[in-house]
Structure formats: structure tokens, C-alpha cells
Amino acid sequence: MADHALPGATKGEKGGERSRIGRGALIGLAPLFLFLLVFLVGPIWVNLIESLKEPGGSQGLQQYLRIFGDSYYLTVIGQTLLFGLGVTVVCILLGYPLGYAIARAQGAAKAVLILVVVTPLMVNVVVRSFGWMVILGGSGALNAGLVALGLPKLELMYNWTGVTIAMVHVLLPFMVLSIASTLETLDRRIEEAAMVLGAPPAQVFYYVTLPLSLEGIVTGAILVFTLAIGSFVTVLLLGKTATMVLPLLIYQQLTVSSDWPFAAAMGITLLVLVSFVLWLQSWLRGVSAARGER
Q1: Which CATH superfamily includes the segment(s) 64-293?
Q2: In angstroms, rounded to a whole number, what is the distance separating the alpha carbons of residues 163 and 83?
Q3: What digits encode the pLDDT tens for the residues 52-105?
Q4: Of 51, 14, 44, which Cα lies nearest the Cα of 263?
Q5: What is the phi/psi pair of residue 231, to 5°?
Q6: Model's pTM, two decimal places?
Q7: d(Cα 95, Cα 106) in Å, to the nearest integer?
Q8: Domain extents for the chain?
């Protein structure tokens, strides 16, 4: 087989050229590796070492045994996962129609829809949370409107309902944009071919459009879930202690109890949970792809 890399060059010269290119790439990527080492790997390593500290000054797994040996902390972990799952499901149900509308819209209508969706991301999370407190509070705008209509008030503050509403408002743009970007890449001729063959619009959507857009749904779900179970400010302001999740418990251990090793162990536990979810998603995608090849 002819070698067309460098006419007239020997194998040794070509090997030296590749080596120089490799060294140049490593030198160019060195600042990125250094940044990740200092600001990502470093803090995780410090937290891991801190989480292994025990009262006697030795190192061990006592902090993790406290977490997984106490039903209260296990309940908080379960609530955190269920909260993330609930927010993700609601974002999918609301985000798919919006993403579909954006993908199918044209011109000014599309620009307006995108602006409406991304506007919440332009507002500070604290301001956004206080805005929801004004709307959902006992004397807030929503209950004032219900009272004016002769309807009973709703208790939407300091419970899971209010926190979920506010969190969906925060994270919905991630789901919408993920789905819209996937739908925009779909070949419309596939849907047209299904309609030509006699499939009604509902079947075209269920058997063609929805399966082809699953990649966007999965991507959006990963973003929303990981951000939801790691959220703190919105849960603190709208839920207080009535909606206890792992990030809020970590905050309490740091500021109230000053138990840094236990807080670090909770942080590592949260990181492991997120990593497991990402691994599970990757594994399921691989299984699905293997079945599709069959």
C-alpha cells in the first residue's frame, strides 16, 4: 500500500513529524489540563480526603456509614432523587411541545419563541426565586386572583409543589433547546414519506418523529436532572426545611453544625449519584443501539 503522507520522506522522518505534532498538541492542551487539575480534580480530591476524617484524627469510612446507616439521611437522598425525577418529567411534558413549536416555526415567530424560552436564564436565580415567592405566597398574586374569583387559596409555599413549579421554570429552557435542536436536524422527508404511505399525523408523530427525537429528550433529561438534584437557592428560599434535599443538608452541616467531614461525605455522595445516573444513561443508550443494530 502506497504511503502518500510525505513524498520522498523516510519512515523515520514521518515518525519524527508525528512525534513533533503530538508534542505540540500536548503543549497546547497543557493550560486546559492544568485548569481542570486545579479547579475540578483538586477540589474533588480535597473533599474526598476531608470526608475520610474521623473524630479521633484517623481516616476511615465513618462519615459514609453515618449517611447510609441512618434512615433520615437515606430519606433525604430518596427525596433528592425523586425531586430531580419529578422536575425532569414535568420539563419533558412541557418542553416537548415548545421544542416542537420552535423547530417548526419560521422567521420572526421562531425568534420570539426562543426569546420567551431563554428569558428566564437572563434573570438571576435569587431574583427569580423571590419573584415566585411573590406569586405563590399566601397573599401573593395567584391567591389574590383566586380569592377575587371566590375560590379557596392554595398552599404553594414551603412545600414540594411550589419548589417544583419554580425549578421547572428555571430548568425548562435546557429541555426545550435540547429537543428543538434535535428536531431541527431531522429530515422532514421521512415524515412526508410516512404520510404519503397513508399514516395519519398521530402515527407519524408516534412512530417517526418521537423516536428520532429521543436523543434530544435524553440530553435534556440529563441536564435537567443533574441540575435539579444539585439545586440549592430555589429550594432554600421556597421550601425552607420542609423540602429537604441533599444540597440543603450539606449547607446546614457547613453553616449550622460546622461538621466539615460529614458535609464533604455528603458532597461526594451527591457526586457519585450524578455520576451513576450519567453512567446508567450511557449504558442504556448502548443497549438501545445494540438492539437497533440487530
Answers
A1: MetI-like (1.10.3720.10)
A2: 9
A3: 888 777 788 889 999 999 999 999 999 999 999 999 999 999 999 999 999 989
A4: 51
A5: -75, 150
A6: 0.84
A7: 18
A8: 12-51, 64-293
